[in-house]
C-alpha cells in the first residue's frame, strides 16, 4: 500500500470520527432538550455523557488536517491549485471557527447554567437551545459541502 493510500485511509477514518461524533452530539442535544423539563436526572446524564465529544471532534479534526497536509505534500501541491480544494479550505476554516468561537462557548455556557441551577434557568436555556441548534446544523452543512467538494473534485 502506498503512503498516499495510507494517508487517504487515515483521512477518511478521521472524517468518520469527526462527522460521526458531531452528528451524535446533535442527536444528544435534541434528547437533552426533550428530557430537560420532565426527567431532569436523565437530561443531566446525557449532558455529562457528551462532555468528551468536543475532544473526540478535535482529535478527528487534527488528524484530518495532518493527513490532508501530508497528501498535499506527497503530491507536491497539485491539488492545492485546484478550485475544489480552495473552496474546501474555506469550508474547513468555517468549520474550525464555528467550533472554536461559537459551539464550544455555547456548550460551556450551557453546562455552567445547568450546574448553577439558578432561578430563571428555563429562560436562559431557551436562548441557548436555538443557538446550539444553529451551530450543529451549520457544522453538518459545512461537513456535507466539504465531502461533496472532495468527492467531485471539480476544477
Ligand atoms: C473537516 C475536514 C475535512 C473533511 C471532512 C475531508 C474529507 C475528505 C474526503 C471525503 C475526501 C475524498 C477522498 C476520496 O477521494 O476518496 C478527501 C480528500 C482529500 N482531502 Fe480532505 N477533508 C478534510 C480536510 C482536509 C484538509 C485540511 C486537507 C489539506 C490540508 C485535505 C486534503 C485532502 C486531499 C489532498 C484529498 C484528495 C485525496 C485523493 O483523492 O487521493 N482535506 N477529504
Care to describe what's here?
- The protein has one domain (about 5-150).
- It contains five helices and no strands.
- It has helices at about 5-35, 40-50, 55-75, 85-115, 120-150.
- It is elongated, with a radius of gyration of 18 Å.
- It starts with a helix and ends with a helix.
- The structure holds protoporphyrin IX containing FE (HEM).
- The site of protoporphyrin IX containing FE (HEM) has 18 residues, from helix 1, helix 3, helix 4 and helix 5.
- Protoporphyrin IX containing FE (HEM) binds near residues 18 and 146.
Fold topology:
Layout: H1 3-36, H2 40-49, H3 53-74, H4 83-116, H5 121-152
Bound molecules: protoporphyrin IX containing FE.
Protoporphyrin IX containing FE binds next to α1, α3, α4 and α5.
Structure described in brief:
The protein has five helices and no strands. The chain has helices at 3-36, 40-49, 53-74, 83-116, 121-152.
Mean pLDDT: 94
Shape: elongated
Q: What distance lies between the first and last C-alpha atoms, to the nearest angstrom?
A: 28 Å
Instruction: List the ions, cofactors and other small molecules found in this model.
Output: protoporphyrin IX containing FE
Q: Tell me the β content.
A: under 5%
User: Tell me about the biggest sheet?
Assistant: none
Order of helical and strand elements: HHHHH
User: Which segments are poorly predicted (pLDDT under 50) over 5 or more consecutive residues?
Assistant: none
Question: Rounded to an integer, what's the Rg over CA atoms?
Answer: 18 Å
Q: Kindly give the count of domains.
A: 1
Query: With helices defined by DSSP (H or I, 4 residues minimum), what is the helix count?
Result: 5
Beta-strand segment tally: 0
The class by helix and strand makeup works out as: mainly alpha
Helix percent reads over 70%
Amino acid at each position: 500500500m502506498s503512503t498516499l493510500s495510507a494517508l487517504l485511509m487515515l483521512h477518511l477514518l478521521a472524517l468518520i470520527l469527526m462527522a460521526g461524533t458531531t452528528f451524535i452530539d446533535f442527536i444528544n442535544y435534541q434528547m437533552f432538550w426533550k428530557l430537560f423539563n420532565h426527567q431532569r436526572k436523565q437530561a443531566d446524564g446525557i449532558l455529562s455523557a457528551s462532555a468528551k465529544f468536543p475532544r473526540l471532534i478535535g482529535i478527528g479534526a487534527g488528524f484530518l488536517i495532518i493527513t490532508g497536509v501530508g497528501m498535499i505534500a506527497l503530491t507536491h501541491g497539485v491539488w492545492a491549485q485546484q478550485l475544489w480544494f480552495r473552496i474546501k479550505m474555506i469550508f474547513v476554516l468555517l468549520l474550525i471557527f464555528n467550533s472554536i468561537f461559537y459551539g464550544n462557548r455555547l456548550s460551556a455556557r450551557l453546562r455552567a447554567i445547568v450546574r448553577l441551577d439558578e432561578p430563571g434557568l428555563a429562560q436562559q436555556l431557551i436562548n441557548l437551545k436555538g443557538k446550539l441548534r444553529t451551530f450543529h446544523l451549520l457544522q453538518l452543512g459545512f461537513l456535507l459541502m466539504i465531502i461533496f467538494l472532495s468527492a467531485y473534485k471539480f476544477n
